[in-house]
Design goal:
InterPro entries: DinB, DinB/YfiT-like. One of its GO terms (molecular function) is metal ion binding. This is DinB family protein. Keywords: Metal-binding. By secondary structure, this protein is mainly alpha-helical. It has 6 helices and 3 strands. The chain has a 3-stranded mixed β-sheet with strand order 1-2-3. The longest helix has 42 residues. The termini are far apart.
């Protein structure tokens, strides 16, 4: 085997590795879009007169829960464009929300930011470190990939909580990954 053959093999291996990692990004984009579409169905049916409701004294009010859900796609962008978030220097402020339309607009904006950041990403962006803190207290120390996965898992987790809220309020629960008792569409 001559040097030209070795170089061609190395280029081919590098291209396969790049493609494999781009597949990860494409899979994340697909999952982000799916979670966005499911979440949008849930937000679109929320009655504003129930925003202050919670199923238990230890539970979040519905409005705080759904605002948090709308924020989670933005964490994809945060993961890829920053090295972390310190709540001591950047305290969280809940955006004003008066209606389900407001929630859908926030979700759409944050989804667009997350999607755009992922579309610009490459393999090296997924490996960087991302730290969530409150001053000197480290709340999470993840890779950027793990931060993205965490935001997607949080979306699923909190949307499931919202499904319980809806059920307890006797509001039909949309299907998520298949039919629900109220929505037989698959």
């Amino acid at each position: 085997m001559n040097i030209a053959d070795l170089l061609l093999m190395e280029l081919h291996t590098a291209e396969k590795t790049k493609q494999k990692n781009m597949d990860i990004i494409n899979l994340l984009l697909k999952e982000l879009e799916a979670e966005f579409n499911i979440t949008k169905k849930f937000l679109a049916i929320l009655p504003a007169d129930k925003f202050d409701w919670a199923p238990h004294e230890k539970s979040m009010k519905m409005k705080s829960l759904v605002v948090h859900i709308t924020d989670l796609p933005r964490w994809v962008s945060l993961a890829l464009t920053t090295d972390g978030l310190d709540f001591e220097t950047e305290p969280y402020t809940e955006p004003p929300v008066e209606s389900s339309d407001d929630l859908v607009k926030i979700l759409e904006k944050n989804y667009a930011a997350g999607k755009a950041a992922l579309e610009k990403a490459d393999e090296s962006d997924l490996n960087g470190r991302w730290v969530l803190s409150m001053g000197k207290q480290v709340l999470a120390d993840y890779s950027k990939y793990e931060t993205i996965r965490h935001s997607l898992s949080q979306t699923t987790h909190h949307r499931a909580q919202l499904g319980v809220y809806l059920r307890l309020l006797n509001i039909p629960v949309p299907g998520s990954y298949g039919p629900s008792a109220d929505d037989q569409n698959f």
